[in-house]
Amino acid sequence: MPETPDRPRPVFPAARRAQTAVSDAETLFGELPRRRDGVGALWSHQGDQLRTYNSLHVQTADVALELPTGSGKTLVGLLIGEWRRRSLGQRVVYACPTRQLALQVVAASQRQGIEAYPLIDSHHDWEPREVTAYTRHQAIAVTTYSHIFNSRSYLGNAKTLIFDDAHAAEGYVAEAWSLEIKRSSAAYKDLFDAFGTAIEPPLVTRMTGDGQDTSSWHEVRLIPLSAVSQRVSDLDSVLDAGIPSGTPGRYRYNMIRANLESCLFYVSRGGWYIRPMVPPTFEHAAFTDPGQRIYLSATLGEAGELERAFGRAPIARIPSPPAWERTGSGRRFFVFPDLAEFDPALDTIAPASSDPNQLPGLSEQPSLLSRLSTLVKKRLILTQQAEAAKEIAVELDVPHIERFDASDTTVDAFKQAERGTLLAANRYDGMDLADNSCRFEIMAQVPNASHLQDRFLGSKLRAGEVLAERIRSRVVQGAGRCTRGPQDWAVVVIHGEELLRYLSDPDKTQSMPVELQAEIEFGLRASASSYSNVVALTRSAINQDDDWRTYGESALAEGRTTAVRTPQPLAAELASSAQREVTAWRHAWLGDWEAAGRAAVSVLEGLTDPKSRPYRALWAYFASSWFARSAAAGSASAGPRAAELLRTAYGAATGSVWLRELQPLPADAVNLEPSDESAISSVLALLQGGLRSSATFASRTQTMLHQLAQSDHSPYELGLVELGKLLGAESFKPPGQGRADAAWLWDGLWLTIEAKSEQTAERLSMTYVRQANTHLSSLAADREVDEAPPGSVSVFAATSDLVDPDAVPIAVSHLYLTTTDIVLDLAHEAHRAWAEIRSSVSAGDVAAAASVARILWEHHLLPAQVKERLTRQPIRGL
Fold first, then answer.
1. Please, are residues 404 and 414 in contact by the beta-carbon 8 Å criterion?
2. For residues 470 and 478, what is the distance between their CA atoms, to the nearest angstrom?
3. How far apart are the first and last CA of the chain?
4. Per-residue pLDDT tens for 154-189?
């Protein structure tokens, strides 16, 4: 046999050396290889958390650890995961909200000598070697939430799941069972056709029409649950035909299709939003099969939001170390440009003399926001809506080439760029801009509605307390996007009246970390000076110069020692309710309507605080609807129970509109309240009397519209009084100093209006607010009663929505702010309704009252509807 050339000898794999099994995660830290860029020692609070976990929660199915930003949360999670991998032989998945954060976790694990691989992007692109290492529990898999919560998870064999940034989970988890149908989709209108007569024609017109009905853009409606169950087959057909295969929407539709009858359908002019209230994670094996789920959070909250977000209860908690409460994560200087005053002597900027088009002696006045933004090369614009971020970028003249629309890939590009502006809509979490990557942030808009369910709870149900914890978490996390560690610092500019008013209200800030409270309070005081001084303070904060360290830091340290953190009023009640809510929605998702109804009753019975009445009404409605479905399935006792619970819902929803909109009744069958009946009687009396003549009607309404379209206060106040009469109110201007400009009184509901139609840039002052605070009590004294009817309100009608921050804390809870444009819209709607009444209603007809009720209802002009239209902006509250 001929000789063959020498060949390399085979190398056989050595026996894999077993990794040392240690007793706990804290001990494991000392066994890890030391690396120059790794953490050299654990902080005391990290050791405390690890010891608590080891002694109490190794076998706990669901456990949450609270570690604020900058306190080493990621390392604690990695150590627990690595210990469970080594000592228990488990496959461990570490999930992050975004791809960017997943890569940061992998980098952190490598610095610490922990084997971890990024299994992100499409599973088709995963490295087989890395997948095998995870499968054989030789390494931790780091991924995104979307790879856990989808129709087919390729990481469904984990034994331990770790969720980072769990406080931000609501959107990421619910997204898998949420379906959006945009207005631009053909399915948008087809869904209205599928519901047929279950949706009243006026709503369909407002939602689908192309007119400029400004009130419709704010409106969000929950479709009756009975209508969904009765037309589920038609709805399925529309969605099946309207959602293209292979799209994210199709995958989400597949997640809810078999349980469409258990979903809530919300609609606005912008689109449909379909989902269960609580995500049904209980049936998702990739989430439920692991022996333990660990939730790492910068803020666990106190109202049960973690349980609602993950659809899991109970979840044990290891709270944040008490000492960290006053340590904080970096330093922020809050700037409120709306509070600064332009001083011509100090703040005027002369134009460059080289400008040939500029006449000598003239000057210009750039906005303070523009002046501040020129102090830095890079800035973050954080808003709730994308359009708002673009508008700010335009205001700042940011070139298109320097704009970065936030995504997992563009954030890294922005961090590496020398100049740029990152436009981040609804990115309150999952985006770290530490150190020099960005030290200047602009925040605008209160993040109170990331989707239509939030909007319904806040604007329609008026259950702001239910959303308070979620909103607070978004604000706190959003303000910290550029401060990711104890030594970090940044300037946070608050743009716009809405967020300024929110941060001026102690009811909102008192539940925030004391460090943040001190920073906000200092910023409010520091911003109340000239433009030039605010610019100087901002420059000092950005540079961290001697002046800042001497005076700014000492002021903040003093504020930190006096601030006290206080839970929101309903926190304890909502926290205890969370587990019952999760149980109720589990039964509803499974179609066990009798059990769902009983669980919903348990929820509403636990909501006893007067401030929880709106939420209690919603749960009574759920209970009624679910018992009604049980009755339809043959339960003899469920029918009377459903009727009883609907009465309970109406009792809790007195003075609101949403429940009457949900009633599955014909359009002309409107449930009336005392205020409605008094309005209808007054309208009929006016129809027979003062407005009987066509000429008189035309003259009075045209005069009113003209008065409400101008700024002069005298005719404007006359227009308000006339509008109140058209709305069926006892309408007049109360006599005396400091009284309302118009009072509209119905049986059981009073509404006063203070007109600021002449207002330009002037803020509503403390004096104005103090006067408006007393309008209802003054009326009560005039009427010789103890107080105004429950639910009565006072409203400012102004051209600007600026409010002095010092006036916010003193405002009573029933004081609201609206615009003169909304009042004028209301007047035009009243004119249209009256034209229909005059053409179709005979005052002597036995059906006249019912016809007037129907017309006012369809035009959103019954007293409770008028109140809803004018009270979208509380000066204090949500």
1. yes
2. 12
3. 91
4. 998 999 999 999 988 888 999 999 999 999 999 999
